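User: Structure please.
Assistant: Input sequence and predicted structure:
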Amino acid sequence: MKEKYSLTGERMYAVLNSTYDGIVAIDTAGRVTLFNAAAERLLGHSAETALGMHVNEVIPGTTLCQVLEDGRPQLGVILEVNGNTLLTNRTPVLRGGEIAGAVAVFENIAGIKELHKTLDDTRTSVEVLETILDSTYDGIVLVDKQGIVTKINRAYLDFLRIKEEDAVGKHVTEVIENTRMHIVVETGKAEIGHAQKIRGSEMVVMRLPIFKNGEVVGAVGKVMFRDLRELKALAENLNLIENELKYYKTELHRLKGAKYTFENIIGNSEQISAAKQLARQAAASDSTVLIYGESGTGKEIFAHAIHNYSYRHFGSFVRVNCGAIPGTLFESELFGYEKGAFTGAQKCGKPGKFELANNGTIFLDEVGEMPLEMQVKLLRVLQEKEIERVGGTKLLPLDVRVIAASNKPLEELVKEKKFREDLFYRLNIFRIELPPLRDIPKDIPLMARHLVAELNESLGTAVYGLSEEVVRIFQKYTWPGNVRELRNVLERTVIVNRHGEIQKNQLPLYLLQNELRLTDDLLQLKKDFPGKLDRVLQDAEKALILKALEMTGNNKRQAAHLLGIHRSALYQKINKYHL
C-alpha cells in the first residue's frame, strides 16, 4: 500500500509541475508546503525560498489563511501579483474530517501557455495533490506507459459525463474519443496545441510524456481550450490589441516628433563611433549642441538620438529648417504671434516653435541660413530663456534644449560677417562633427545592408544583399550626397531588382561610368604621343569596351552610354576588334 501511494504521489506531483496553473499549499500554521513551477513564474518567488515561509510573506494581501479559519472555499477571486492579473480558487484540505491545510490554484487570465516540466520529488501528501488536481479549471488526464488511465480530474469527468470508476483502470481510447495519449507514450514526443473532437466539440489539447530516469513512464494530457472558437476569438482579440498598440505607438512618436535612436545610427568606423560616444555624452547634459556635417550625413538622426537619450525624451522634439523659412516669417515662426499682430494673422494667435518645444528639444537645422536680425533675437532667447510673441507684451519663460546643425563651418561664416560671433560661441558648446561617406568606406557595406533591410520592409521586396563587385564600386565612389544619395541609389535598385542579390549591372549608369573613366594622364599621353601609343591605346580601348559590355550584361545601348560614344560607333569598334 505504501508503494502504491508513493507511485501515485510521484505521478500526481509530476502533474502538478506540468500544469500551467500556479499551485500553492499551506499547512495549518499558514506555512507554504507546496510551491510548483508555475507558481514560481506567476508569483516571482522560487520554491526554494518560498517553502517554509508564511504565505503572507510570499503573497502579500492574500486571504488564503481565512480558508483555514472558516473552512469555506473561495472561488473566482481576482488577485494582482508580480504584474500579473490572476484568477484564483482557494480550497481547504481535509484529512479525517479535519482541516489539514489549504490550497490555492492560480491561473493567468491573459491566457494559458505551455505546461511546465514535471517535478521529480513529492513535497506533500497524496490527499493534497488530489485536491489540487480537482481544483484546476480544465480537464486533465494521466495515463501510465501502457496507456491506462490512472487519474482524471473532476473537470474532465464532468465534461465527459462519466464517473471516475468508469475511467480509471481502462485504456485511454475507451474513455476519450480521438485521443492520442497512448501514441505520445509510445513515441515520447509532446503534442501541443492539437485539435481534438470530443462529444461533438473541437477542442485544443496538449499531451506531454512523463519521463523518469530517461524512460517514458506515462503521459499527461490537458484541455487548453474547450472550444476551438474560443481560441479563434482570443487570437482575433490579441490581433486587435496589437494593432491598437501599434497605432498608439505611432501617434506617440508623431506627437513627440523624435523617432530615431542611437540604434538607428549605423557604422563601426572610428569616426562614427567617436561621434556616437560624444553624442551620448552631450545627451546626458543640457548644453547646446552644434552638429557639423555635409548634406546627407545624418545630422538630424543624431539630433533625434540625442533627444531620445536625454531626460527630455518625454517632451516634444520640434524641427526647424532655417533654410526653408522666408526671412519675413522667421520671427513669427520661431516665437509665435498674438491675434491681430499683422495682416493675415490668425484671429486667435499662434504659438511659435520655441513654445511648442517647451520642456523638450528644438532642432535648428541649417542654422547658418538664419538672417542676421534673427540671430540677435535667438541669442537673447538662449541667454534669457524667455520669448515674446510678435505683437505681444508678455514675456514667456522657456525651458528648451537647443540642438543646431550646419553643413557649412560657422567659423567661415563668422569671418565673412554672415553669422554673429557671439551666437556662434553660444551654440558651439558641445560640437559633434560627422564624417562624409567617402571618409568611412568600411562602413558603406554595413550601411547599405541596413538600408536594404529597411527598404525591403517598406517596399515589400526581398533583396538580401550586395555582390562583392557592388560593394567595391560603392567604396570607390565619392558619394557627394552621402547617406541620402546611397539610400536613393539603393531604393531605385531594390525596386528594379525586387529579390535576390544586387548586381553591378543593376546600378545607375553614373556609378558604372565612374568605373570606366579614363585618367587625365592617359588622355594627355594620347595627345603627346599619337603614334607610339596607338597599340597601347587600342588595347586599352578594347579592354574598356569589354568591361562596359560585361558591366551592362551585353546591353549595347547602355555600354555606349557608359563609354560616352554613339551606339553606331560602338558597333564599329566591336567589329574592328572582332568582339
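The first helix runs from residue 2 to 18.
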